[in-house]
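Minutes, structural biology subgroup

Action item carried over from last meeting: produce the structure token record for Alkane 1-monooxygenase (Planctobacterium marinum). EB confirmed the sequence was re-checked against the source entry. Recorded below for completeness.
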Amino acid sequence: MHQAKFLLFHVYAILGIASFWMNGNWIVWGFLVTVGSIVAGDLLLGDDVSEPKPVNKAFYNLLLWCAMPLLATLVVMAIITIEQSSSWLLWLTSALYVGLLTGTLGTVTAHELVHRKWGSFSHRVGRWLLAFSFDSNFAIEHVFGHHINIATEKDPASAPRGRNVYQHILVSSISGNISAWKLEKQRLQRAEHALLSHHNRFIRGVMMSVVFLLISWMLAGVNGLLFFTLSGLIAKSLLEIVNYMEHYGLVRVPGKRVYPRHSWNANNKISSWSLFNLTRHSHHHANANVPFQHLKPMSDAPFMPTGYLGTIGLTLIPPLWFKLMAPKLAHWDQYFADEGELQLLNKR
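Output recorded by EB:
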């Protein structure tokens, strides 16, 4: 069971592919079943606080690598299906559905894979998965920027108190890419390589998404191009929303050690099983080299209001989000923050 539970990720992928295969209202129902089952499951089924000791590393790698053929199949089928549709409502629902699954199949899996050795098979798969959401350079900024600067003003992904999610999507997207470019520029200077050359991993990351745009255009012309772009931007926005809710309002003194308290955690069963334990974010940031199957629930970490998809919905209503998070931040200030962090908060 400790191994099989992560197959839920693939069940949602296959449901999406089947929905587009059957077309029409099946797409709408597939989207509603996916969203409804995750939110309801998180609310009704409680938390997963197990700490398994898995032994089959190859099995977990295979689960991650399967994301690439599944996502590619889903996107191609969606583009071909939408080209034949004249319903704007179905078109929009399809973009939301593909955007959501790109965020899970692509971004969540890639998040795990890009922490592997740069240039390895797993890392390459991760970069290509991120290209579906125009974000291959997340592999640069996230690993070499975010994990070092988390919960400080230098980190684009860590939202300060009072910033709403819509501002964060824009600010973090722009600042994250600027940071990735600077980090890659510094690396090239150290290696004595030209900035504008095939050695530039930022440029190669952009070209990965260009390849997918060309394929989309070849499949369905302008409609395919527009659909891929919209669904990709939705997936990219989901990433920034997740960044927002994982670190909102938390602070850390620059240069100090990263502890579990510097990320919001969640142990809800369906979110954890369908997102490769991304929910156990506090442990991930305390030790980024731990594979997803070994992450611990960290019951003493600060917790989100609910599971991931439910919390995403809450962030989209800023007044409600601020109201819900105010007591949680007050609790964090009182029971988690150290003296240096309290001083930082008083200066803001």
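Discussion: The mean pLDDT is 95.
Next step: EB to file the record with the rest of the batch.
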